[in-house]
């Protein structure tokens, strides 16, 4: 089969930063299914893995990138009971395995769900990774009770995860959503996603206070943990919770959260698959919930850019756009 | 009234590290009651406040230390409905207010409970602060479900909080309790408290592994957050939770918890009183639960040393013992 990946970490502009190669078509077994991939989407993790995982080495077998995927089931393993050949599924994959940037992909059926039927493939494929991240952060990590009349601050509201987190929070909970943005375009985007308030993360504490909030019950940081640490410590309510998905560049003064008995939680969407946790099936259940919300028109796709065609050129352009940090919403590559 | 406290931060051996002075007897109002104090106990926070809160300054009014207290209600405020004059209550106080090292103390009725009747005053007075800390850590912060067959590692099992945490975990949950100790005396103490396993915190990862555990669902650190950080990161299960009550000496590499989507939570027993949170009454409810467990003989006092008499000499000796770090169990001062 045709696949796109890399065998050494290069800057994206280098000729071999991404390469096309022939790979063995995978074979389904046990819980694993083989999907004929229709489209993939870009997430920051694609570029991070490309840049960091093969520095100064050459991999024997090139690594296939791509986490978000949508496709049709080609074959199922012996333990798969809830899907059949021909089902169209979408998923966010497993960072420890080969990904969706190939004609066929092997994936654990317990982390896939039937794709939405009311939107296009490229609109659907941008949803899994960000939706799972946002859902797990709010409900599995911060353990938010949807009926609570509390506040959530989403730092980085216009990015992929921030956009979908805002929609999920507004559509499934009583939370008041304060999203952050700093440009006119991103501020408008956050409002389109349903944010009740949009504040500026360049002056976060004052900006939140000026919007009428002295403290915040839940903070979901999808932008920068280190830069916003002191502001988060100041804004978080006593006994509040902060969830982040972004590594810190430097060690952190966690004592700042102590007097208020604050909870700090990491959300890493690959944890369940990576450690094959007992609750791995939860990811399939969450994705099924996302499909349902989409097909009820409660959640809209965050797609903003589509590249047409399975080519190194298109994947390179998509990586470059992601690395620019300027992307609003999400990018799909349709094969 | 007679009171013991300090107006400058001194080492305990200095003459004026603690002084006796006359203070105004407090007056009850609203939710606040006045208690005629019978006994106090020592916690690390007493020495920390003494040493750190008046460095190179002289306070106009000496600060009265003492958080744990037991006594008889002398008068109640207008909003107090659940207690009456003459009730014997115990409590862990409020670090922002004057404490129990005085003949009378003003305290918010929403953080006190009727004292146990089956044990002595000195046995009872050592319980509130440690019990509240352990209870809040396990049930309000880590949100442990008592019915789960999971594991908890208590780092610092022989200290005041560790001792009571072990008992509460064993008596009210299905948790397997692994407590840490490093000396023969403390190892025996941990077993007496009910720990299922006692492991050595000087070689924590190996010691836990040798006890038969590859990973741990909940870690409660009451010893040293910084020193044990890497071991905790290694031992904690994917999606596990770590709660600490001890400030770190240096900034921390929190990224180590990310791949497993781990939760890190501070427990600070004074948060509810300090910020007058909406759920402040929860502390009274928890203490009432502790009283009930004690009077059902499910929890035993962690008292190991009693000083008799309200004197500067006795309080100094109690501070000195606490600062030695060698105390096993808890110290009471009975007036």
From TrEMBL, chains A, B:
Cited InterPro entries: ADH-like_C, ADH-like_N, ADH_Zn_typ-1, ER, GroES-like_sf, NAD(P)-bd_dom_sf, Quin_OxRdtase/zeta-crystal_CS, Zinc-ADH_QOR/CCCR
Residue ranges of domain Enoyl reductase (ER) in the record: 17-333
Pfam families (alphabetical): ADH_N, ADH_zinc_N
GO MF: oxidoreductase activity; RNA binding; zinc ion binding
Compartments where found: Cytoplasm
SMART domains, per the entry: PKS_ER
Keywords attached to this entry: Acetylation, Cytoplasm, Metal-binding, NADP, Oxidoreductase, RNA-binding, Zinc
SUPFAM superfamilies found in the cross-reference section: GroES-like (SSF50129), NAD(P)-binding Rossmann-fold domains (SSF51735)
A cellular-component GO term for this protein: cytoplasm
Tree of life domain: Bacteria
Main location group: cytoplasm
Subunit structure: Homotetramer.
Family: Belongs to the zinc-containing alcohol dehydrogenase family. Quinone oxidoreductase subfamily.
Protein name in the entry: Zinc-type alcohol dehydrogenase-like protein
Source species of the chain: Poseidonibacter ostreae
């Amino acid at each position: 089969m045709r696949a796109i990946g890399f065998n050494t970490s290069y800057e994206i502009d280098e000729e071999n930063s991404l390469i096309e190669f022939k790979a063995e078509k995978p074979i389904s077994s046990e819980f694993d299914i083989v999907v004929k991939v229709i489209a993939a989407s870009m997430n920051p993790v694609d570029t991070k893995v490309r840049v960091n995982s093969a520095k100064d080495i050459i991999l024997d077998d090139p690594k296939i990138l791509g986490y978000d995927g949508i496709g049709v089931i080609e074959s199922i393993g012996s333990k798969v009971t809830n899907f059949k050949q021909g089902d169209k599924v979408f998923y966010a994959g497993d960072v420890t395995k080969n990904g969706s940037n190939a004609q066929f992909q092997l994936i654990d059926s317990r982390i896939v769900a039937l794709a939405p039927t009311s939107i296009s493939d490229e609109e659907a494929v941008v949803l899994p990774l960000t939706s799972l991240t946002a859902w797990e952060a709010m409900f599995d990590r911060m353990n938010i009770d949807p009926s609570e009349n509390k506040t959530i601050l989403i730092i980085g509201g216009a990015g992929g995860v921030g956009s979908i987190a805002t929609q999920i929070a507004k559509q499934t909970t009583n939370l008041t959503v304060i999203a952050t943005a700093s440009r006119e375009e991103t501020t408008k985007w956050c409002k389109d996603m349903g944010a009740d308030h949009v504040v500026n993360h360049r002056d976060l504490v004052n900006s939140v206070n000026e919007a009428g909030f002295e403290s915040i019950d839940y903070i979901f940081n999808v932008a920068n943990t280190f830069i916003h640490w002191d502001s988060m410590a100041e804004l978080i309510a006593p006994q509040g919770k902060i969830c982040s998905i972004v590594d810190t560049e430097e060690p952190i003064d966690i004592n700042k959260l102590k007097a208020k008995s604050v909870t700090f939680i990491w959300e890493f969407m690959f944890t369940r698959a990576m450690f094959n946790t007992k609750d791995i099936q939860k990811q399939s259940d969450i994705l099924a919930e996302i499909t349902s919300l989409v097909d009820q028109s409660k959640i809209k796709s965050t797609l903003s850019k589509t590249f047409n065609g399975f080519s190194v050129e298109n994947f390179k352009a998509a990586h470059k756009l992601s690395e620019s940090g300027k992307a609003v919403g999400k990018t799909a590559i349709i094969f």
